[in-house]
């Protein structure tokens, strides 16, 4: 069992993001000695990487309870929602057989991704866009389908659009309205139904297209991996 104890109060005020903070991590591991069931050890200090938040850039965003709690299609289990103290370490593998193998430098930690208890947009006002870019990867149509069904059935979003032809589709193609009925069966098809493209896009025109169509949530697939 691993115990993570924040060195400071980890709950930020509404509208702010968590900055860098230290965490004390103590855990118990199986011992190689038959006479000792467990052994305590302490990892180096953990630094929580600051998390940018929409509220840092868009002032006056509302804080609303998540629609998931009211959805007849989904019933969250205990521990389902992610809180400000839920983290994941950048490096998660350690050899406890030798004290020399324990890292001496500070460990980096990041906030976990996942559903929160609050949202920042009214689902009825959201205009969501889904775009597939670059090379193909397995399961793209399944991801599109699940995004549409999840936004529609769980969050109550009714304005969902697919952007054809990758990034350039924001200014060279007409967005396609999507709903669960339309994407039903997409998971059985290969490639990407929305089609894709590589390079040759105009970033300024993309931004202008997002503004023109009133998109306030844009989901890119495959996601960017840093």
From TrEMBL:
<keyword id="KW-0808">Transferase</keyword>
<dbReference type="GO" id="GO:0046872">
    <property type="term" value="F:metal ion binding"/>
</dbReference>
<protein>
    <recommendedName>
        <fullName>Phosphofructokinase domain-containing protein</fullName>
    </recommendedName>
</protein>
<dbReference type="InterPro" id="IPR035966">
    <property type="entry name" value="PKF_sf"/>
</dbReference>
<dbReference type="GO" id="GO:0003872">
    <property type="term" value="F:6-phosphofructokinase activity"/>
</dbReference>
<dbReference type="InterPro" id="IPR050929">
    <property type="entry name" value="PFKA"/>
</dbReference>
<keyword id="KW-0479">Metal-binding</keyword>
<dbReference type="InterPro" id="IPR000023">
    <property type="entry name" value="Phosphofructokinase_dom"/>
</dbReference>
<keyword id="KW-0418">Kinase</keyword>
<dbReference type="Pfam" id="PF00365">
    <property type="entry name" value="PFK"/>
</dbReference>
<keyword id="KW-0460">Magnesium</keyword>
<keyword id="KW-0021">Allosteric enzyme</keyword>
<feature type="domain" description="Phosphofructokinase">
    <location>
        <begin position="127"/>
        <end position="217"/>
    </location>
</feature>
């Amino acid at each position: 069992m691993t115990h993570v104890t924040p060195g400071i109060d980890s709950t930020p005020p509404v509208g702010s993001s968590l900055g860098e903070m230290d965490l004390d991590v103590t855990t118990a591991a199986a011992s190689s000695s038959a006479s000792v069931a467990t052994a305590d050890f302490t990892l180096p200090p953990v630094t929580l990487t600051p998390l940018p938040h929409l509220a840092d850039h868009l002032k006056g965003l509302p804080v609303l309870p998540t629609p998931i709690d009211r959805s007849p299609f989904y019933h969250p289990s205990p521990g389902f929602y992610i809180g400000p103290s839920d983290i994941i370490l950048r490096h998660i593998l350690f050899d406890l057989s030798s004290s020399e193998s324990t890292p001496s430098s500070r460990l980096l930690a990041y906030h976990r991704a996942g559903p929160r208890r609050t949202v920042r947009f009214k689902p009825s006002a959201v205009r969501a866009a889904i775009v597939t870019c670059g090379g193909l990867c397995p399961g793209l149509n399944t991801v599109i389908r699940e995004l549409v069904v999840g936004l529609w059935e769980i969050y109550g979003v009714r304005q969902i659009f697919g952007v054809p032809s990758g990034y350039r589709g924001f200014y060279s193609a007409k967005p396609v309205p999507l709903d669960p009925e339309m994407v039903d069966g997409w998971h059985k098809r290969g490639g990407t139904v929305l089609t894709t493209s590589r390079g040759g896009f105009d970033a300024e025109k993309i931004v202008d297209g997002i503004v023109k169509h009133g998109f306030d949530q844009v989901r890119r697939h495959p996601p960017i991996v840093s």
